[in-house]
Automatic annotation (TrEMBL):
Protein name stated in the entry: Calcium uniporter protein C-terminal domain-containing protein
Record key words, sorted: Calcium, Calcium transport, Ion transport, Membrane, Transmembrane, Transmembrane helix, Transport
Molecular function GO labels: calcium channel activity; uniporter activity
Origin superkingdom: Eukaryota
Residues spanning the membrane: 112-132, 138-158
Organism: Brassica cretica
Biological process according to GO: calcium import into the mitochondrion; mitochondrial calcium ion homeostasis
GO cellular component: uniplex complex
Compartment(s) where it occurs, according to its Swiss-Prot or TrEMBL record: Membrane
Domain Calcium uniporter protein C-terminal residue range list: 38-196
Lineage: Eukaryota, Viridiplantae, Streptophyta, Embryophyta, Tracheophyta
Membrane topology: Multi-pass membrane protein
Protein family according to the UniProt entry: Belongs to the MCU (TC 1.A.77) family.
Pfam families referenced in this protein's UniProt entry, alphabetically: MCU
Broad class of the protein's primary localization: membrane
């Protein structure tokens, strides 16, 4: 059969505008403009073998590429495997990150405890100087300047960190400093951790700040 005749048959099939047609109609279209009654069957077999159509029982798919895409969409890919691999990687990084946060928290709490000890020692010292060693007339300006020193330290803390000079603000600032130092010391890939966290734990992404 000449290629020109085959192209004419394909053109007529495209003009039908349907994805599926009965096999009898398919044979009829293939045999149009030919007096041989078996011509339609021969052309139909040729199109089927060439992969131009797909014959399924009593129906014919005129657009096999669309059927192929539909079937391919139902076949599972390696995406679940990849997700499982990245989830395992994220869980390992999450364990390391949790250890880093715990160590940073312990270091900051030690600093806070040392600060509390310093304040207690200062208070006891001022109390003794006021009532035993010296007098309130002498200690009053000393207490004033000590209070002013704390105020200036709080103001300097705000200028440096842009955070409220409170116990909570000081804790957060020192925690972030210790955390960054430990991340650098342990060569922890924080960018990779944040990327995987967005994929597997998006609920924590908005609430947890980036390092």
């Amino acid at each position: 059969m000449r290629a020109a005749e085959m192209e004419m048959v394909k053109s007529r099939l495209r003009d039908i505008g349907k994805n599926w047609v009965p096999y009898s109609e398919f044979v009829r279209v293939c045999g149009e403009n030919n007096s041989d009654p078996e011509h339609g069957n021969r052309v139909a077999n040729m199109l089927d073998k060439a992969g131009n159509v797909i014959v399924l029982g009593n129906f014919v798919c005129l657009k096999p590429e669309e059927l192929t895409r539909a079937v391919a969409g139902l076949i599972p890919t390696n995406e679940p495997t990849r997700n499982a691999a990245t989830r395992q990687e994220f869980e390992q990084l999450e364990i390391i990150k949790s250890d880093i946060d715990k160590k940073a928290d312990d270091l900051v709490r030690r600093e806070l405890q040392a600060g509390l000890g310093l304040v207690i020692a200062q208070t006891i010292g001022f109390f003794r100087l006021t009532f035993w060693e010296l007098s309130w007339d002498v200690m009053e300006p000393i207490c004033f300047f000590a209070t002013s020193t704390y105020f200036m330290a709080g103001y300097a803390f705000f200028l440096r960190t842009a955070k409220e000079p409170s116990f909570e603000g000081f804790y957060k600032s020192r925690f972030e400093t210790k955390q960054k130092r430990l991340i650098k010391m342990l060569d922890f890939d924080i960018d990779r951790f944040n990327k995987l966290q967005k994929i597997h734990r998006p609920d924590l992404t908005n609430s947890a700040g980036r390092c």
